[in-house]
Design goal:
The protein contains 14 helices and 13 strands. By secondary structure, the chain is an alpha/beta fold. It has two domains: 190 residues, Rossmann fold, CATH 3.40.50; 178 residues, 3-Layer(aba) Sandwich (Rossmann fold), CATH 3.40.50.2000. It has a seven-stranded parallel β-sheet, with helices on both faces. A six-stranded parallel β-sheet has the order 10-9-8-11-12-13, with helices on both faces. It starts with a strand and ends with a helix. The chain binds ligand GMT. The site of ligand GMT has 20 residues, from helix 1.
Length: 378
């Protein structure tokens, strides 16, 4: 089958999920065409069956905003025509689902019938998509896709609640390639904790895009409270608008020197190998792919109980859930996890076992079944 994949080519979860699906499909013999404005950060172009088509924008001074949707839908039509694509799988509704609808109509005029699968990821529904400025077009594109999926039940319910949806939405959970993360319980050669922390220090980690929805300053507050009771280090991975305030708060609370700022990384699996506890205090989170990645690397999760997080992180088993903003509870729960090395080891094992249930081997066939229901082999 020949599939076009449209996504944001960034470190964000939706781009990562789209890239991993595309690469896994190519491994299974599908012809996969990524249509994006940059090479997706985790894309391994060396795999056979992977193609990349860059969407380019001609800047013109008349435009206050450059018309990306036009360039994207034009590219989708060109690629679909040239490579006989049968299906477009677009990740993140804005503006991908809308551009795909336009591409489908243009292709129809040429006598080409292409199917569109839209996967909703979170902020395209909860934060941005439901804003009155976008809602009409997002609702239209959801209702006019051939199949719509969400990455959690919570996001499906949010979509029905926030939009006037007249069709079925399927839940296909995010997934993990567990072998990329699996490590020996005590760490292996590649996992020399000693380069990061002393033997008695616990290592806490947070990975995000440091947008307000992540509440990254809560991570610093939790860390400061944990440090009152236990020796620890904090690894902060990623970059984003709140980082300046995060650093400022760390200085104010006197914990700056105990933090390693690692920026964006393509080696999240190696970084997580050092971690004892992953902290995700988000205000909203449709799934929490970063939490699943942590669990795959045997790292229990301290998170809020918002959105899809309870579908991933099981309270008292793989970590703990708290109300949004309740940093006292999250600090208390972190201390429960690291009370002793033995206790921590139990949670680590639970986190890993839970992550295995989100293995790509179980999730990819669900997407394949969707594709096959739409495209009848010639
Ligand atoms: O978390 C972000 O802000 C990035 C965003 C994205 O679209 O890349 O993440 C969303 O999609 C991820 C992959 O499906 C989910 O794991 C995240 O929970 C979701 N983020 C939010 O809902 C805030």
């Amino acid at each position: 089958m020949r599939i076009g994949v449209v996504c944001y080519p960034t470190f964000g979860g939706s781009g990562v999920v789209a890239t991993e699906i595309g690469m896994a499909l190519a491994n299974k013999g599908y012809e996969v065409h990524f249509i994006t404005y940059n090479l997706p950060v985790r894309l391994d172009l060396i795999s056979s069956g992977i193609h990349f088509h860059q969407v380019q924008i001609e800047e013109y001074s008349l435009f206050h905003y450059q018309p990306y949707e036009l360039a994207l839908s034009s590219k989708m039509v060109q690629v679909a025509e040239k490579y006989n694509l049968e299906l477009l799988h677009v990740h993140y509704a804005i503006p991908h689902a809308y551009a795909a609808y336009m591409a489908k109509q243009m292709l129809r005029e040429k006598g080409i019938d292409i199917r569109v699968v839209t996967t909703l990821h979170g902020t395209d529904i909860t934060l941005v998509g439901s804003h009155p400025n976008y809602k009409t077009a997002v609702e239209f594109s959801i209702n006019h896709s051939d199949v719509v999926t969400t990455v959690s039940k919570s996001l499906r319910d949010d979509t029905y609640r926030l939009f006037d949806i007249n069709r079925e939405i399927e839940v296909v959970y995010n997934f993990i390639e567990i072998d990329k993360y699996a490590k020996h319980p005590m760490g292996g050669e590649d996992c020399e904790r000693g380069s990061i922390a002393t033997e008695d220090e616990f290592i806490l980690t947070h990975i995000s895009n440091y947008r307000p929805v992540k509440r990254a300053k809560d991570v610093i507050k939790i860390f400061a409270k944990v440090l009152e009771k236990k020796p620890a280090k904090l690894m902060l991975v990623g970059q984003g608008p709140d980082m300046v305030e995060v650093k400022q708060l760390a200085r104010e609370l006197g914990v700056y020197d105990k933090i390693l700022f690692l920026g964006n990384s393509l080696e999240v699996n190696k970084i997580l190998c050092y971690s004892d506890v992953f902290i995700l205090p988000s205000k909203s989170e449709s799934f929490g792919l970063a939490a699943l990645e942590a669990m795959a690397a045997r790292t229990p999760v301290i998170s809020t109980n918002t959105g899809g997080l309870p579908e991933v992180n099981i309270h008292g088993v793989t970590g703990f859930l708290s109300d949004v903003k309740d940093v006292n509870d999250m600090a208390k729960n972190t201390l429960k996890l690291i009370e002793t090395r033995d206790i921590l080891e139990g949670y680590k094992q639970n986190a890993f076992e839970r992550a295995k249930t989100f293995s790509i081997d179980q999730v990819l066939p669900q997407y394949e079944a969707i594709y096959k229901s739409l495209v009848v082999p010639a």
